[in-house]
């Protein structure tokens, strides 16, 4: 059975089958509903059901609280319709970069640290692959599973896409990346996906928060901002357990030295004496709060482990006055979570 979904306030509408999610139907119709993980874990697709009946499928409880569900909020990546529905959500532009399935070739594999690998993928010469800095692709694995990774380079920098992959021992895909994967291997991907990109219509100062390989899409955002000669102040907080986890520290220092208005604050949580770390320590999101007691006039872009992104949102909005809609996030899900 097919129902109609109407988006408020834009008035856009699209058909949605009773067995497909509202997000999937929207993307099929090129209607730009915000989204990230597409599996009920990140909250990026949250919006309000104004009229109609729906079913909310499997999702992580913390992503939609009982209170929010009570207020009519839902996660459109897990919501299927039982009738025509009207939803309220702030749309984003996705139309210019439709997602597609493509074969790619591994052009280069390079170890960035003991547990992070960069792989550069060559896209087919015959197919244009356009994306926005901050978006991600999914690998389509043989067993039908998927793994998501953000592009670590802005599109203008190369005709290849670079990914930063952390080794999760026992994880089928990353074990392969760290052992048997070699240059010229063919990998199938689907993308671009996600709505984590710079909101360029704003003139607010930008706070960028990354933990571990959450740096990848943040790096792409910074490259894009530099290319656009954006004049908004940008402050990057990059957190890791030990200094080696900040695997592109040098690049960030170079930006801080050469890009007007750009500041870089590396933050280490578990330095050992032999690290000789003399910089900031502790949780990376706490470092932001130490420097910005008032975030009400900023935009925040955060990417990293769900615990970091969730804590940041809770505290930035809850205690530092950041408007909830100015917190843009991409929290990645590990292979262990997907197993
Ligand atoms: S929770 Fe729906 S896209 Fe992440």
Model description:
The chain is 20% helix and 32% strand. The protein has 339 residues and is α/β, with parallel strands linked by helices. It has three domains: 2-88, Roll (Ubiquitin-like (UB roll)), CATH 3.10.20.30; 100-193, Translation factors (Elongation Factor Tu (Ef-tu), domain 3); 206-338, Rossmann fold. Strand 15 (234-240), helix 5 and strand 16 (262-268) form a beta-alpha-beta unit. Residues 35-38, 40-45, 63, 75, 77 line the site of FE2/S2 (inorganic) cluster (FES).
List keywords for this structure.
339 residues; alpha/beta; Ubiquitin-like (UB roll); Elongation Factor Tu (Ef-tu), domain 3; Rossmann fold; six-stranded antiparallel beta sheet; six-stranded parallel beta sheet; 19 strands; globular; disordered C terminus; binds FE2/S2 (inorganic) cluster
How many strand segments? 19
Low-confidence stretches: 334-339
Counted up, domains total 3
Bound small molecules, by name, code or SMILES, are: FE2/S2 (inorganic) cluster
Helical content class: 10-25%
Shape: globular
Determine the CATH superfamily of the largest domain.
Answer: Nucleotide-binding domain of ferredoxin-NADP reductase (FNR) module
Mean pLDDT across residues: 92
Spatial strand order of the main sheet:
11-10-13-8-9-12
Overall radius of gyration: 20 Å
The class by helix and strand makeup works out as alpha/beta
Just name the CATH architecture of the largest domain: 3-Layer(aba) Sandwich
CATH class of the largest domain: Alpha Beta
